[in-house]
User: Fold this.
Amino acid sequence: MTARAPGAVTARAPGLLRAALVFVLTGGAGTLLSWLAYVGLLRLGLGLPAAYTLSFVLGLLFSALVNLRHAFGVRRSAGNLLRYAAAYGLMWLLGLALVATLARAGVPEEWAPVVALPATVPLSFLLLRLLLRTPPGPPP
Assistant:
């Protein structure tokens, strides 16, 4: 077993903490934007799946523009955008299932996406961090 350098854990932690903080703050702004769009679309008569999907895409675009560079430290390239969208696609499936389940359980449709956030936000961050991880070595 090798001894860990005294600064090893703390040297790595700020990167993770900073990324998580940026992700949560920009995610909060994006979530508010998405939720307002979702409620507006519901009130325009769209059903839950269509309203959730359209507002989700709006949130994806906002989030990708900000988080690729600022939370995950990667370039806004087609490959990174594709990985980001793939992660969000998985989260869309999970989120839609969770929101629909919550609505069927009696949570008002307008609030179901908000109630789902404690489950979906950490999963989104971890999945994106995994998919956007750059190989070790000098920065490009």
